[in-house]
Amino acid sequence: MVIIPKEKPVIENMNIYYLDIKKLLEHYQGEIGSGGAYFKSHAAEGVIFFDKDDLLNAFFEEKDLDLKGAQAIDRLINARGKYNFTVSIYQLSFAEVYFWASIPSAEKIYEGLSTEFTDLEGLIRKMSSEKLTGYIDVTIGGGEEIGIIFIINGKIVGGSYSWDREKPGSSKKNQELLIRKTKESSATFSVCRIPLAKMKTQGASQTGPNRPSKAILNMLEELMVIFEYAVVSRKNMKTDFSKLLKKKFVENAETYAFLDPFAGEFEYSNRRIDFSGAASDKELIGGIVSSIQELAQELGMRSELLNSCAEWSDKYSKQLEKFSVKL
């Protein structure tokens, strides 16, 4: 899928015959930091996404060939004598560039939703409220027309439409037209999510003020294991622990967005924590500890929790004191 938002090119329609693509990319990595180089000819097209340090991903398409990743990068960088490309450079924010570079890794979370049961406007509102990062793929009249709405953290950032193929962008008019077309004709929808972890692996830094430390993740992982064991050890426990936990996380997602199970940022399974979201140590500790406390209270096992976690509390007393946390 060769798609890039193209509202404001930094420079456009440069003839590849006169260009050294490697040096061109190096120049704009330093000049604008992050963005995309879009290649277009009558027979093929492609795009290379970059940040200031790396070439993040690339896509190349011609009649019978689709390439991505390193193969696409190699094909486009060495395209000078094979394709009569024009090249345009587009500046993207750090969040946007990882989004566009990660689109092929998107996972379908809903497929084949029909206008018989689903309204596109309602679906857009639902995905926005759930802070979706991904896109809604719309097929109208069995494939006569298509539209794609791109969303980052619940905010619409653009779209691609079969009636306006040359201008992917955030046009409100096209979105309204798409909604109207789905009301006038039968349509089906698929919703695809890009897990933040996969966006990160395209080149985004895993460290910084909005990323919890490994030590805190290990600390909370130990707490989760202790609590899970205490819950499942109860003889009268009939409900699955993971279901109880997800229900509690949903309740607390308004305060701690990273707990929303639909976002897929915080996952606990097989006694392991996998966290791909953005949160400080304090925020992550607050969300997890308060959820455990509330769940323990609801299950009538507050004292059991305190007894089970006595050794853990001693081990991490400095961290708990630092963040003013008490079980």
Structural write-up:
The protein has 327 residues and is an alpha+beta fold. The protein folds into three domains: 9-103, no CATH class; 106-201; 214-322, no CATH class. The chain is 39% helix and 25% strand. It contains twelve helices and 13 strands. Strands 1-6-2-3-4-5 form a six-stranded antiparallel beta sheet, with helices on both faces. Strand 4 and strand 5 form a beta hairpin. Helix 7 (214-232) packs parallel to helix 9 (281-298) and helix 8 crosses helix 9 (281-298). The longest helix is centred in the C-terminal third of the chain and has 19 residues, at 214-232.
Task: State the separation between the terminal residues, measured CA to CA.
Answer: 49 Å
Percent helix: 25-40%
The number of domains is 3
Contiguous helical run count: 12
Task: Encode the helix/strand succession as letters.
Answer: EHEEEEHEHEHEEEHEHHHEEHHHH
Largest sheet features: 6 strands, antiparallel
Low-confidence stretches: 200-209
The helix-and-strand class reads alpha+beta
Per DSSP E runs of 2 or more residues, the count of β-strands stands at: 13
The coarse overall form would be globular
Q: What is the mean pLDDT?
A: 85
Order of the strands making up the biggest sheet? 1-6-2-3-4-5
